[in-house]
Amino acid sequence: MDSGQFLVLLGFCGLVVLQAELLTGGQEDVRVLLQQLMARVDRLERDRGRSQVAFSASLTSTSQWTHQGPFENVSPLVFREVKTNIGNAYDPDTGVFTTPTNGLYYIRFTGSIGKSGSLNAAVLKNGENMFAIYNTVGRISSNANGMTLVLNEGDRVWVVLWPNQSISDKSGLSTFSGFLIFPM
Ligand SMILES: *[C@@H]1O[C@H](CO)[C@@H](O)[C@H](O)[C@H]1NC(C)=O
């Protein structure tokens, strides 16, 4: 082997080593990129799961009139008949909707007047009045109100009946609903 051939061989070996380094280096980059992508997909899937939030429930679903109140004290209303509960953020045992993610929500409450002849009830967030309905018995004895609310993860939203007021239901006249419009 002359020096010329040796240099060519050396050059070839160098190229092979360089290529191998580039290749393994590239594989490392691809591995890191894949890990980052997988983490991002996991995050997106989790966010997507948490961004599917909607609930609707009524006090009763039967065709029998059911009445609640009048009570002496402020009483939480428990809408036990769940129609929709995507994300399971509404608890039909307590009547409380617990926000699973920060976002803009639409919350709505409709109530039909019960035995006391007047219905005054409010939607509370963490105990603070957000909005209310008030009506006394007349030709129209049902009221509804709804609002978009910016809620934080873990906020609790429920409906209360004020003292001496009453509510009734029959086939879903009195309902509590909410859904996430978009996460924020
Ligand atoms: C509820 O009604 C009772 C009896 O009429 C009355 O004594 C009481 O003050 C009322 N409570 C409220 C908060 O209006």
Automatic annotation (TrEMBL):
Residues 48-184 form the C1q domain. It is found in: Secreted. Its main location: secreted. The keyword DNA-binding does not apply. Pfam families: C1q (PF00386). Residues 1-20 form the signal peptide. Residues 27-54 form a coiled coil. SUPFAM superfamilies: TNF-like. The keyword Metal-binding does not apply. It comes from the Eukaryota. Keywords: Coiled coil, Secreted, Signal. GO terms for cellular component: extracellular region. This is C1q domain-containing protein. It comes from Amphilophus citrinellus (Midas cichlid).
